[in-house]
Amino acid sequence: MDLATCLKKMKLVGVLAFATVDSEGAPQIRNISAIHYEPDALYFFTARGKNFCKELMEDGRVQILAYTKYKEMIRLSGKAYAAAENEQKKWMDIIFEEQPYLANVYPGDTREIGIIFCIDKAEVEYFNLGVNPIFRETYILGDISVKEKGYYITESCIGCGKCMRHCPQKCIEKGTPFVIRQEHCLHCGNCYENCPVKAVIRK
């Protein structure tokens, strides 16, 4: 798996859930399909009068979720911004060509009420529940740094093996200290809750 494959899978899913936060701090989710994919960016269309547009203009943070029939979850977390004015028509024409249904929603010049947003810096997490053990990995779109997530076993480990016995995915290996194979970790916290010496930490 890699970033390019994740973007292809998102494109195949088609309709994606976009999550934002409104001015009162309440979560908001919309299903968006007016999206164009480039190797290094996503472009999407919405109308300027929508609350969705207002939230993007005020804050820009957005999380996008795709879920495939193979139990794969792809989550993109980034910041959207309005595409440059001189590129708005270019991307709008491409999106309307790729998504013919939009001509029924915004016929003729009514599409001019729309605005194109771009995401070119994001963290993309791939999470597959359809394999055993589960598989997860994080990829980077653009120039950003990623915060570590999940659980790690510190040098305080006494090697009792309790964490390993309680791991539902059997992704903990013996060592000094024991080691969690991050690509197979559910982030469920069972190791953390069962460690008798609190040697497991959460990033």
From TrEMBL:
Its cofactor is [4Fe-4S] cluster. The keyword Iron applies. GO terms for molecular function: 4 iron, 4 sulfur cluster binding; metal ion binding. Residues 148-177, 178-203 form the 4Fe-4S ferredoxin-type domain. SUPFAM superfamilies: 4Fe-4S ferredoxins, FMN-binding split barrel. InterPro entries: 4Fe4S_Fe-S-bd (IPR017896), 4Fe4S_Fe_S_CS (IPR017900), PSI_iron-sulfur_center (IPR050157), Pyridox_Oxase_N (IPR011576), Split_barrel_FMN-bd (IPR012349). It comes from the Bacteria. It holds the Pfam family Fer4_10. Keywords: 4Fe-4S, Iron, Iron-sulfur, Metal-binding. Ferredoxins are iron-sulfur proteins that transfer electrons in a wide variety of metabolic reactions. This is Ferredoxin. It comes from Blautia segnis. The lineage of its organism: Bacteria, Bacillati, Bacillota, Clostridia, Lachnospirales.
